[in-house]
Amino acid sequence: MKKILSLLLVSITILALLAACGGQKAPAESAAVTDAAPEGVTVLKVGASPAPHAEILEVAKDILAQQGIDLEIVEFTDYIQPNEALEAGELDANYFQHITYMNNFNAANGTHLVSVANIHYEPLGIYAGKTASLEELADGAVIGIPNDPTNGGRALLLLQGQGLITVDGNTGLEPTTLDIVDNPKNLQFEELDAEQLPRSLDSLDLAVINGNYAIQAELPNALALESNDGAAAEAYANVVAVKEGNENNEAVQALVAALQSDEVWDFMETHYAGSVVPLR
């Protein structure tokens, strides 16, 4: 009888241990459910530069949440990866680039990205490095410019507008340093990745810097800016981009409406003091 009772106790103990082991699977299953979007909620994954684009998207995020759209903002610090991720289907949209850059990226990389809306314009600026003003610029001074064709050409046109150089008028929006036909101060040009320019100011006399990187670096006021009204604002409008075929995605269209809302426009105008100009 004692042997039978002992066997029963051992069996009960084994069953209890098996039940406990089986119960350990529950948290993993619960976690999987937690990670999924709640029923009725649409997740919209958008790539963006940290500033100003991700900051602007944060304002739109609250508007979209009221419509059952969970805006997931993925930040990138360069101009290449957010387009590659969009082409690969890892993003639903991106918001970081101007239309001319996007068109050139498509041509150079065989991608299929399209704009669904103009959102804002960031005037390109000339910022002080070792030289404090344009008037103090010495003969042979070194000026940093972006090394991509679109923004590099844009930088040269801005310098031309300040009377520092003259470029060949037949080169349109994308002159290169080889197209400079008059350089009275014998200026030297250092072409760098756009994101590196703010960090390189200590070794440059001046640098021409994109608005988003100037904002991120919290640079002081520019010595000169592109005009807000004119060809530049149209050619360099920052856009919401998608992969071709997704232009009519309802969540993307809701994003555009949110970014063009009075609430977001007021945020751009008050928060960036002219460094970001809303467009419609």
Describe this structure in words.
The structure is a single chain. The protein has 280 residues and is of the alpha/beta class. It has two domains: 42-123 and 234-278, D-Maltodextrin-Binding Protein, domain 2 (3-Layer(aba) Sandwich); 125-226, D-Maltodextrin-Binding Protein, domain 2 (3-Layer(aba) Sandwich), CATH 3.40.190.10. The chain is 40% helix and 22% strand. The chain is built from ten helices and 13 strands. The protein has helices spanning 2-23, 25-35, 50-65, 81-87, 99-109, 149-161, 211-216, 231-235, 250-259, 262-272; strands spanning 42-48, 69-75, 93-98, 113-121, 125-128, 142-146, 166-167, 180-182, 188-192, 206-209, 224-225, 237-243, 277-278. The strands form three sheets. It has a six-stranded mixed β-sheet, sandwiched between helices. Strand 1, helix 3 and strand 2 form a beta-alpha-beta unit. Helix 3 packs across helix 9 (250-259) and helix 3 runs antiparallel to helix 10 (262-272). It is elongated and about 65 Å long.
